[in-house]
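Protocol step 4 of 5: obtain the predicted structure for the target chain.
Materials: sequence only (see below). No template structures provided, no constraints applied. The aim of this step is simply to have a reference model before the mutagenesis design in step 5. Sequence pasted as it appears in the construct record:
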Amino acid sequence: MSETPSRPAGSETPPTGPGAETPPEAIKAIKLRHPWRMVLAIVLAAIAVLFIVDAAVNRPVYNWPEVGKYLFDVRVIEAAGYTLQLTIYSMVIAILLGVALAVMRLSPNPVVKSVAWAYLWLFRGTPVYVQLVFWGLIGVIYKTIDIGIPFTEPWVSFDTSDLFSYFFLAVIGLALNEAAYMAEIVRAGLLAVDKGQDEAATALGLGWWHTMSRVILPQAMRVIIPPTGNEVISMLKTTSLVTAVPFSLELFTRTSDIAAKTYQPVPMLIVASIWYLAITSILMVGQYYLERHFAKGVDQRPAPQKPTVETSAMAAVEPGELPGVVPPSNRPGGGA
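Step 4 output (structure tokens):
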């Protein structure tokens, strides 16, 4: 029995000789060229530069000194504050009401589900401007608000026009309209969570509230946050419609009032646009960090497991050359 000389692991030399295979050469990858992309980029950059130079030099109607004069005017800053308040208050109410409507849409009770569907049908099917006009006329439609037993003399009666300010009516009008859209966003997030999560929470003895607040909603937030951030930014711009209530202290209407006195509408439009862009940029940064927080662990994958012992190639040996191994030809009943 011949013995095969053993070689230490990792010291195997490449085979040599006329029949030996040569190792393949390394692939030299050549980057694919895209000349038309470069041409398009140059054209776009040239158009942008020409537009900026034209706006800065050749368009006196922009009146940039007038823009700088009113950009930080006290009235404009106060109007930006009202715009932020309208956005925040309306979105808080809309999110809370949207969660409730989404749960109602998923309820097995047909009456509850029908009420939620009717709400969405009404507020999504009519323009927000029309709704705000209705809220502005609420004092005409309902002159008083009476508290008491129906068909009897009211215990207390309030004058509607004295009870609700235009700011409050603008917040309610925006919030009720936005709640219809938030309900569908929240419902989509809840449906995106696997049904097994709900079943597992029920098997562990968690009630509906704890299942929803600790299991379902935290996982659904990854789906809910991006469109909700878009709705917040959209709400910021929708506040320009509250003049239909009429509420005239928000950013767009306030700058329009200043333009009516200065006869300079274009500079005031630029002032309003700069403020909208500044607030939107801050909201986009906040949305980015919220998305990153609720997306923790989603894109992370475990690293591939590495072997604990270093592996290398082994030389092939015949079965008869291994101690304790009998070739098939020498076994009882074995073949040739």
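Step 4 remarks: The longest strand covers residues 144-147. DSSP finds twelve helices and two strands in the chain.
Proceed to step 5.
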